[in-house]
Amino acid sequence: MCGPPTARCSLYWPASPIAALRGCARPGVAMSPKRQRLLFVIGSVLALSGAVLFTLSALRDNIVFFYAPSDMRLHPEAVQKRVRLGGLVKAGSVEKQPQGGVVFIVTDGKADIIVHYNGVLPALFREGQGVVAEGILQGERFEASQLLAKHDERYMPKEVADKLKATGRWRGSN
Question: What is the pTM of this model?
Answer without folding.
Answer: 0.57
